[in-house]
């Protein structure tokens, strides 16, 4: 588990620096802070470590298919849609509440405006 992908089921071994990372983003951060900043090396043969059974396995990304989304040792489904940190969800929730408040305020404002603005004024504003 890392701060980028909360439901990471596997660790990946970066072929460039031979270190284990939970996601490519972790590699970016680690590589940036290292003495030899670099991009992750793209490879057709990825090495994974299952977080459930702790076993290591390789996958050929060129021939990766649906059946390869499971750990060959324990059948753990490791290709999942990433669950990103909760903060984002909380912000979304706040936004909804803000939105509903805003909608209410807008309706009140609209009513006030209608009593203030006559038809001509409203038309001029819209035009
Ligand atoms: Zn690397
Ligand atoms: Zn990460
Ligand atoms: Zn496994």
TrEMBL record:
One biological process term from GO is: protein import into mitochondrial intermembrane space
| InterPro entries per record | Mito_Tim_assembly_helper (IPR052604), Znf_CHY (IPR008913), Znf_CHY_sf (IPR037274)
- Report domain CHY-type positions: 1-76
> Sorted alphabetically, which keywords does the UniProt record give?
Metal-binding, Zinc, Zinc-finger
Can the keyword Zinc be found in this entry's annotation?
yes
UniProt key word Zinc-finger: yes
What the entry lists under Pfam families is as follows: zf-CHY
The UniProt entry, under PROSITE patterns, shows: ZF_CHY (PS51266)
Q: Give the molecular function GO annotations.
A: zinc ion binding
Give GO cellular component annotations, separated by semicolons. mitochondrial intermembrane space
Q: State the protein's name.
A: CHY-type domain-containing protein
Q: What organism is listed for this UniProt entry? A: Acrodontium crateriforme
Q: What is the lineage of its organism?
A: Eukaryota, Fungi, Dikarya, Ascomycota, Pezizomycotina
